[in-house]
Fold:
Amino acid sequence: MFSHRGDKVEGCIFNIMKYSIHDGPGIRTTVFMKGCPLRCLWCHNPESQMSKPQLIRFSDRCIGCGSCAKVCSTGAIIIRESKIIYDMTKCTNCGQCAEVCYAGAMEMAGEYMNVEEVVKEIEKDKPFYEESGGGVTFSGGEPFMQPAFLKELLISCHRKDIHTAVDTSGFVQRDIIIELSKYIDLLLYDLKLMDNEKHKKYAGGSNEIILDNLKELINLGKRIFIRIPIIPGINDDNDNLEAIGRFLSGLRGIEQINVLPYHNIAMEKYKRLNKKYGLADLKAPSDERMKEIAQKLMTYGFKVKIGS
Structure:
């Protein structure tokens, strides 16, 4: 999602993380962009899924002043018997309640920024990039959902000699990802499940376009790190891991694989968004299991790293 403010392309950003060491080589600035076409059950950035700014509630901060109810024009927040009642089905994410919430119990996830504003933030860390071999990583959500905005960001960063990486699900329209790949130095490319029906069930979309796009990017000689989130009981079985290994070994162009252990630290985010987290009882894989998975993928000839 993007728009123009005056003659400047702008897009929706929900975080800019400085001094990141988990989103590509070196020290990086990670720009998190709103919007995602998939709905992975384990998504650790649920605030990224909606393409526009979105209300987040921190109930433990609420002091019960009622200021939010006074400005809510849709009836999503009302006061009944001295209690504040929320009906988020009526919320339009207008942000008026967040503006008047003195306690910080209401915040908006996401804001519109233009290319110049974002690049100005990225440039502040340029000395760290030069010393560490780092740069900027565009993440999300799915960055390719804001193609015009992302393209201008990538071009601007290249003009300033800033290394660019994009963290993508690969669930992207073919012509968009191929066109923008011209301006990308490194792709962090997610693979989750090789069985298409399971991919639809657990990630919310077909894996066919993901696999086809990866093949095309490899043919174009793009630099790619594969990232595999390890979700116990969903994609950590040997059949899936071996299917991934066989598929990737047939491409002959993957620089490395990162296996990423599941964690549930995003559970609180779901509560703040009034969403149900479907994997609340799932436990993180053990260190021993992660080592086994890494070893299995190494047998296909890959450099494998546990973690980002």
